[in-house]
Specification:
Shape: globular
Helix content: 40-55%
Order of helices and strands: HEEHHEEH
Number of domains: 1
Largest sheet: 4 strands, antiparallel
Number of strands: 4
Structural class: alpha+beta
Strand content: 15-25%
CATH class: Alpha Beta
Length: 153
């Protein structure tokens, strides 16, 4: 078992390693991008990657505080579901109105890799191999899809 500080240091080391690895890859438009803190340019819509002791995941999170507007964003993503699946070459899980770790209502579109542990350095290559192509594909998807959200800005 790790102390809070040790766990934080391990997570930080993983994300630093991931960031250094991904720094070699420009965005689909050729720009340098902070992959770990990807900017969608759309308030309340985030691309989030997570690595914990039981799994790794990547998600599109819609966190608008107004539940009805949050649902509008989610429904707009639903109209783009086939495009997202085409870019990802897989099906993701779609969840309208769930709770995050802080109890806030969010909506998520996500993919999870079970049975990996960020605290086992031997799992880092599997986690990176899971996250890398998916965040790159999300970037390519977003290059085309972001314009569908202009009316919701």
């Amino acid at each position: 078992m790790y102390t809070k500080e040790q766990a934080s240091q391990i997570r930080q080391a993983f994300w630093t390693a991931f960031g250094q690895y991904m720094a070699l890859h420009p965005s689909v438009e050729g720009y340098k991008v902070n992959w770990i803190n990807y900017k969608t340019g759309l308030k309340h819509v985030y691309f989030r990657m997570n690595a914990e002791k039981n799994a790794a995941s990547i998600a599109i999170e819609i966190i608008h505080p107004d539940i009805e507007i949050q649902q509008l964003f989610y429904e707009q993503f639903l109209t783009l579901k086939l495009m997202l699946e085409d870019y990802q070459q897989e099906t993701w899980e779609w969840v309208l109105h769930t709770s995050d770790n802080n109890g806030k209502t969010i909506s998520r579109i996500c993919k999870e890799l079970p049975n990996v542990n960020v605290f086992r350095q031997d799992d880092w290559p599997a986690i990176i191999s899971f996250l890398k192509p998916r965040i790159i594909a999300l970037d390519a998807f977003w290059g085309d899809a972001q314009f569908s959200f202009e009316s919701l800005k």
